[in-house]
Structure formats: structure tokens, C-alpha cells
Amino acid sequence: MEILDSRLKLFLYGMGLSFAFLMFGLYMCQIYQGDKYIRLAHNNRLRLIRSAAPRGEIFDRNGVPLAVNDTSFCIMGYPLDLNTPAKLDRLSKILMRHGIPINIPDLEKTIKQQRSAPYRVMRIVPNLTMTQMAELVADYDFPRELFPMSVWRRTYPAGSTVANVLGYVSEISEEELKARTEDGYAGGDLIGKTGIERSYEEILRGSPGQEALEVDARGRKIRTLDANPAVKGEDLHLTLDMGAQKLAVELLSNWKGAIVAMDVHTGEVLALASSPVYDNNPIAWGVSAREWRDIVFDPNRPMLDRAIAGVYPPASTFKAFMSIAALEEDCITPSTMIACRGGLRMGSHLFKCWKHSGHGSLNVMGALQHSCDVFFYQTGLRTGIDRLVKWGTILGLGQLTGIDLPGESSGNMAGPDWKMRRFKSQWASGDTVNYSIGQGYMLMTPIQIARLYAAIANNGSLVTPHLNKKGYKTPKKLPVTPKKLAIVQQGLERVVSIGTGSRAGRFGVSIAGKTGTAQNSHGDDHALFAGYAPADNPKYVAVAVVENGKHGSSVAAPMVGEMLAYLLTH
Amino acid sequence: MKRFWNGLKEDLALTDRIMLGSALMLSLWGVFCIYSAAAGAEGRGFDYAFRQAAWLMVSVIAMLGVMVFGHHKFLEGAYPLFGLMLLLLLLTDLLAPKVKGAQSWLGVGGVRFQPSEFAKIAIILMMSKFLSRYPPLDIKTFLAGLGVIMLPVLLVLIQPDAGSALVYLVISFGMLLAAGTPLKYLGSLVGLGLAAGPVMYFFMLKEYQRNRILVFIDPMRDPLGAGYNVIQSRIAVGSGGIAGKGFMMGTQSKLKFLPEPHTDFIFSVFSEEFGFMGNILLVFLFSVLFFRIILAGMRSRDRRCKILVAGVASWLWFQTFESIGMSIGFTPVTGLPLPFLSYGGSSLLATFIALGLVASVAAEGVNNHGF
């Protein structure tokens, strides 16, 4: 017991000694060197200034700049330097004198945003030109504790032509800031909100610089203590061809809809147009709440990228898929003949063929060429919904294509289970009949249709559409028989050479494809065409979907023809 | 219920009221400091201070409960309690979500707590019992005592919570010392630790931990990064001067120069506002507290209790010394809370439960000696 007590005594001595040591340290710090630290805290302030990194630039496949950085100027300052009405009044007067319309309430509102951190530098006046900035700073009355800073402004030279692909950057929101605290964002940073700007944010953003300044009581810089320069983000080269993109936008100029063009072997997207368009420049520079509302609540929805997020019934373009599924499941053979008398009666309901007088007896190739509905009604019934859904899954229908853009829709190719869950009713054979001509619950995006037709064109490989030149993914080999696929390919060639899609073939290149006219209960029918060229050795696939375009053969087919001709001749 | 009140009255009459009084004064002062610190940093000083005050109430009630319940019962249940703590630490490793890179929180029905804080109590109880049953007088029992502690140390290192692991090691070192371990064993342990230092530095410490040691030696090597806290904290303490800037008047903490002002750097906030005079009073209160804790052990006739108070004292002393030393650049930054003053419910509750054990020891010591 004695040893334990002596050890406890040792504790007392040790603790006493350690506290004496601490008191000595506190004495040195607070009294011996106290004046030095009081001066440091009082007169000198360490200020941290963050400089945003220039974003990586974006180019098309030929090096045409699509997103670049401009310099503009801001006036920066500290809320604690603007904490009295007199100071605000003085600043506002100087700004007004130089034609910058910012009044006291505006300034108060700006400063209020950062009330909780008055020591942190913030942007007091945004978006000045070089001249405005120079005049302002040269003014004798300009407060010395405010200072100008150059900032990067994102500009999109092609504007609305590629806005749906590029998206835009904008100031980071409160929620994004909270969700991404680990990634080193700060208030006022630009962040990609949609499109390529968003999906490649990590690559494009670069890393911000930071400078530690020692400043005096009036905010004048005494010296730089430390500086980490900003590092520019990586440039991004897209697979997009600006010539093709421009053409696509022009072709759609009087319509609502989308055009997609893609390399059939690699999935490189050459054109991805959505109409109507919007200009992303003003959004990146900061629009007023009213302008923003006008864009977002426009009934034509210009910000919806119809190429990847617009869902449409594929209509007759779906018949190529029907042929593949039915041939592969041996429900029909190339020589199976089915008679069309203008319709198919099921119970009391008559499912009509678009040609009311009927096509007579046809095999699958003829049915594709003439787009006979009755042939595919029968084929669908023979194949059955389960096998159709199975082949839909194999060919990527109702699934995301994986294109490197945010906001893609998956469309819908759901079967009886889904209908039961959604509508609490049994699958009827009438539903299968509707599916057979790409109607009913069947919905696809233009990019999905393009991917399906690319798979037909490249002899059965499912590509991943991508816009980043480095985004190539090895295509997935599909379990299809080349011989059977060849039948479908021939059928699609005939569509253009002698069938319903002949208007696609008037641009000097050999095209294979399929028209589609989607019934639309809200207005005129939607027009579709999906095709690839050259027909014998396909390189490119293109899809046009035109809302309320009435007929695929007259409106959408020439668009695809012109697009494919452009791609092959440039 | 009546028995409880009578027991409480009796224990309060017998126990060391000077010890409890100084602890209470420190805690109340802490609530004010948190109000001041959080007012600048988050603009919600009242919110934080209120929550800390609520935790203080809970903690004091828990302490009284522990005191009446008695340290004997706790020592009897030391082994199962230790096992339970190991299980909780393991659960934290497996389940807890990562907060700021470390997973030290465990949520139970909406209340989150840090098992690593309560593990300190379980370790102290376990070691008191173990070391008095098997006094670490020869190399075998000494190594066995060391072996026991390695389990919780490893479990918190996985989180990774190097700060808690360090506290566990200090606690067990203090208890081994108090239990009468021959000084040559402890000396060789310290020697071994020093020799392992460079190896740990290069192979086990993370980048940020190495930086903390480098800026401890020279804060100006990275004034923006790891050295920032040290420089700003030293400016805060130093500019407090003799009399301090006054309550709620600290510019360093109000202007947000100080990071984590209400937790890790609470002492800097205190020092800036109350100055050297305030520090004398604060260190005096801590000294009284520690003196009375050790005194409780010296008055007790129970070996286990002597070792127990040594554990509690080592724990609270080490965190106090480290936290104050860190704010003036005497010790490297570890992020350990300052007992009684730093914001944090788990830490406060665990501290007061430990104090309840010491209070119970003190009450009994008086009984036996008759003074």
C-alpha cells in the first residue's frame, strides 16, 4: 500500500510541475510577448483570397471552340468594412457616378448574404468590364479596403446551337455547397448545372488558387504570405461535329423535335439537336429571376433535351425490332407470308392497317418495305409479349443508353408485370398488338432508336453513345444470327429505294431506314425516321423525331437523308 | 426512492464537496465560453450553449446516480462492462457513418454518442480490478496488463481516432505507474515508445498527422494549411493580455479566424476574453480538482480505488494539459476536448460519470477514517 501512495504523491508532483510549465507558457504568450500578439490581432489581419480556376475549355471533334473563358472584373470586399450606412452611401455614390446602377438596398442585400462570416472576402459588385473597373479604381474616392479582382466568365460561342449538349455553368447553390463540402467548393464558385458542363464537372473545374495576405487595419495589403496559384481544368474534346450539329438545328428550325447522328461502330455522337433551342450564354452570366422564369416555364420547354429525354412512341421504326425478335425466336421465317386485308379483327375491335385497302400477301421484307401493320400485328401475337420484352431487354429498350449526359430518360418497354403494378389490370392481347407497331405503352428516346439502328447497321453490336472523345466503351456483342439480321437490313434498304421512305434517298447517298408516324392524342401525329448510310457498308446512323410532323415519310425522312449525306461528304 | 434520497444526502455530506464544486464551476464557465465561441463561428451561440447546459444537467444527475450506486458495484461489473465497450467500439467501426473522415459516432434512437468516450470509464474500471488482482510487479503480469489495453486501442485506431487511442495509452500508463510497476519497466516502455517514434512517423501516421507535427515545430512552414490553427490560436491567446478583451469581445474567435472555436480551441476563446488573470483562475480550479481527486485515492484503503483515481486523474490531466498546451503551441494539435469546457455531450457525460466514481471513493474514504 505504501508504494501505491508514494506513486500517487508522484502524480501530484508531476501534475503540479506540468501546470507550472503551462503557466510559464501562458505568461510568455500573454504578458512577455503579449504586446506583439495584441498588435497582430488588432492591426494586422490575415486575409485569405480565393481565386477561381479557369475552367477547361470544350471543343468539337475538329477543334472548334464550344465553351471558352472570358475575363470580367468584380469589386471584392469584406462585409466588416461596409458595416455602417455612411460607408454604404459613399460606395453607392461612387458606383452611380461611374454609371453602375447599384443603390444602398442592393448593397445591403449583397452583404446580408454573408452576415455570418464578415471576415471573409465576398463579391460586392459583379460583372464589370475592363474600362469600368479601371475608371472605378482610379477614382480618388474609391474605398481602399475594396479591391478589384478578375474573374472568369464562361462563354459559349455557338450559343443555342449546342446548348442542349453543353448545358451551362452557374453559381453554386446553397444545397450543392452543403452536399459537396468535401470537394473544396466555396460560395460564388461556378459549377456545371446541366449537360456536358455537369457530367464532366470534375475534369473541367480545375483547382482554385489561394492567396494569404497580411493587411493593415485599413485593409491595405502589406505583403503576400503564401500563394497557391489556381490550376486550369482539363480541356475536353467532344465527338460532336459542329457542321452536322448546325445542319441538324437548321433542319429542325420550324419544328419541335430532335435529330441524333452517331457513328454506328463506336457510338461517337456527331450531332445531338433538340428543338426549340435556348441560349446558354445569358444563363451562365446570370439572368434575372424573370428571364429565368420565362425560359423554365416556356410551354415549348426549350430546356428539355428531346434527343435524350424526350420520350416518343417509336411507331413503325419499331418494326425493325419486331422483325429481329420474331425471326430470332423462329416465330416467322423469311418466307412466311401473311395476308393483309386492311385490318385485324379481335373481338369487337378492328386494328386497322394504315392502308385501308390492304397490302395483300407479304413476307417480312415486303412488310418492312410497305410498313404493313397487319403483318406485324400477327407477328407480335405469334411471338408473344414475354419474348418481345426479352428481346427489348437484350437490345437496350426501356433502359438508359449510358450517354455521358445527365437527365437521360429510359423510355418504357414494360410488360404484363408492369401493367399490373401500374394500372392493376391484366395484359390483353390488344396491348401486344399495339406494341407490335411501336404504340401503346411503348416509349423510346431518339438516342435509343439511334442505338437500335446502329446495332442493325453494324451487324449486331450494342454501342454506348458518348460525346467525350475519350469516352469509347467496347460495344456489347448481341446474340443475333447474321443471316436473319441481313433480312432486316435488306428490308430497310428497300424502304428507301422503293418503299415508304424514298424521300430519304434523294441526297446522293445510299440509305437504309424506316419511317414512323406516331399517333398523338394531343394533336397532329409525330413524324419519325431512323436510317443509316451507306446502306452496303454503314458508317453513320441518324434519327429524326418531329413533333406534330404528321408523316414520317414526308417530314422526317428528308431530314435524315440530308444529315447522312452531309456526314458522308464532309 | 426514499432510500435513494437518504443515500444521496448521506453521500453528499461525506464526499469531497470542494472537488465537485470546482468541477461544476469549470463546467458553468464552459457554457458561457461556448456561448461566446459559437456566437462568432456559427452565429448560433445560444443554441450551442443551451444544448451544453442541458447536457450538463444530465451529466450532474448521472454523476449523483453513480455516486449513490457506489463504485463497488461498478468494479464488480468491470469485466462485463469492458466486454460491452469492446462490442460497442467494434460496432462503431462497422456501422457508424463517416463524419469528417472518422467514424466515431453511434446513433441509438435519435441520440448520437461517441462510444470511445465511455470506453475510457470501462478501461479504468477494468484496469483497476485487473491491476490490483494481478499487481504488475514482474514482467509477466506487467505485459498482461499492457495486453488488456491494446484491444480498445486497436479498435479506436481503426475508426481512425488517434486522439482517443493516445488517451487510452496515457490512462493505462498512469494506472500502471500507480499500481506500483517497477520504474525500470515503465522506463523501458517509454524508451521503446521513443524508439518507435520515427517508425510510427514514417509508416503509421497519415499525411495530415505528420503535418501537425511539422507545424508544431515550425508553424510558419504552412501558414495557410496545417499551421493556420496554431498561428491563429496563439494570436488569440497572446492578444488576451493580462486582463483579456472581456466576455464576448474576442476578435479572433468572433471574426472566425479560429477554427473549431467551441470544441478543440475553446481554451483560446477563453484566454482571449479573460486574459492571463482568467487563466490563473482556470488553472487554479483544475489544480484543486486534480489535487482532490488524488487525495480521494490516498485516503482510500482499497487498492482498486487508488488505481482507479490514478486512471481518472491521468485521463483528465492529459486532456487538459494537451488542450491548453496546443493553444499556445507547446504541444501538437490533436483535437482532444478540454474537460468540462469543450462543447460535446458524450465527453461531458463521460467525465462526470468518472467524477461520480471518484466522489463515491471519496465518500467511503471519509467513512473509514472518520474525518
Descriptive report:
The complex is a heterodimer of chains A (570) and B (371). By secondary structure, chain A is of the alpha+beta class. Chain A has two domains: 50-78 and 85-237, Penicillin-binding protein 2a (Domain 2) (Alpha-Beta Complex), CATH 3.90.1310; 242-569, DD-peptidase/beta-lactamase superfamily (Beta-lactamase), CATH 3.40.710.10. Helices cover 38% and strands 21% of the residues of chain A. Chain A is built from 22 helices and 21 strands. In chain A, the strands form seven sheets. In chain A, strands 2, 3, 4, 5 and 10 form a five-stranded mixed beta sheet that branches. Chain A has a five-stranded antiparallel beta sheet with strand order 12-11-21-20-19, with helices on both faces. The model of chain A has no long low-confidence stretch (mean pLDDT 87). The longest helix of chain B has 34 residues, at 266-299. Helix content of chain B is 75%, strand content 2%. Chain B is built from 15 helices and two strands. Chain B is an all-alpha fold and 371 residues long. The mean pLDDT of chain B is 85. Chain B has helices at 2-14, 17-41, 45-69, 71-76, 78-95, 115-133, 139-158, 162-178, 183-204, 207-217, 226-240, 251-254, 266-299, 303-327, 345-369; strands at 106-108, 111-113. Chain B has a two-stranded antiparallel ribbon. Chain B has one domain (2-183, 215-369). Chains A and B meet through helix 1, helix 2, strand 1 and strand 9 of A and helix 8, helix 11, helix 13 and helix 14 of B.
